[in-house]
Amino acid sequence: MEIERKFLIKQLPERLENYPSHLIEQAYLNVQPVVRVRREDDRFYMTYKGGGMMAREEYNLPLDEVSYNHLREKADGNIITKRRYLIPCEPYTIELDIFEGIFKGVVIAEVEFPSIEEAEQFAPPDWFGADVTYDGHYHNSYMSRINPGDIRIGSMDR
Fold first, then answer.
1. Which one, of 92, 98, 76, 135, lies nearest residue 13 by Cα?
2. What three-state secondary structure class fits 144?
3. Rounded to whole angstroms, how far apart are CA atoms 64 and 156?
4. Cis peptide before 91, with omega less than 30 degrees from 0?
5. What does the alpha-carbon distance between residue 111 and residue 7 come to, in Å, rounded to a whole number?
C-alpha cells in the first residue's frame, strides 16, 4: 500500500545539491490501472498501482535493462523524466521531483507515510505550497497522456 501526499512548492530548499538524488525515467503502459516501467539510475522495474489518490495499492517487480527497454518502446504517451531529491523531514523523507525534458520546470514534492492517520496529521514545511494530493492532474500517469503545453502545473506555487 502506498500512502502519500503531494504538494506544490513555494521555493526550492537551500543547497539542494547536497541531498542525494536519482535520475528517473518512466513510461506508462496503461493508466487505469496504472502500469509503468521505470529506470531509476541503474535499476529497472515495473510498477502496478491501483485506484485511489492518497492511498492505493502498489507493487514493484524488478526488470533487467533489456526488458525495460523493450517495454519502454510499448509505452503510450509521454515519457516522464525527472531528478528526484531525497530530503529528510524526520521521521519522513520528502521526494522532491524536478521534471526535465518536455515537462522542464514542473516541481512537485511527495511524502510517503506508513498510515493514513500520519498522512492526515502531517504538517508540511514552510517551503511547501498547495496540497494537491486529491487533484489527479498532478499524477505522473496523467502527465503521460497530455500535451505538455496543456499542463496546468506551474514550476512553483505562487
1. 98
2. coil
3. 35
4. yes
5. 9
Summarize pLDDT for 126-139 with one digit per residue, the tens: 999 999 999 988 89
Q: What are residue 94's DSSP bridge partners? A: 87, 111
Q: Which residue has the cell 533489456?
A: 66
Per the CB < 8 A criterion, the answer to whether 50 and 2 are in contact is no
Report whether 143 contacts 151 (CB < 8 A).
yes
Q: What is the pLDDT of residues 46-74, one digit of tens each?
A: 999 998 889 999 999 999 999 999 999 99
Torsion sign over Cα 125, 55, 50, 39 = positive
The x, y and z cell numbers of residue 37, run together, are 516501467
Query: Pick from 19, 11, 21: which is nearest to 155 by CA?
Result: 11
CA 99 – CA 88 distance, rounded (Å): 20
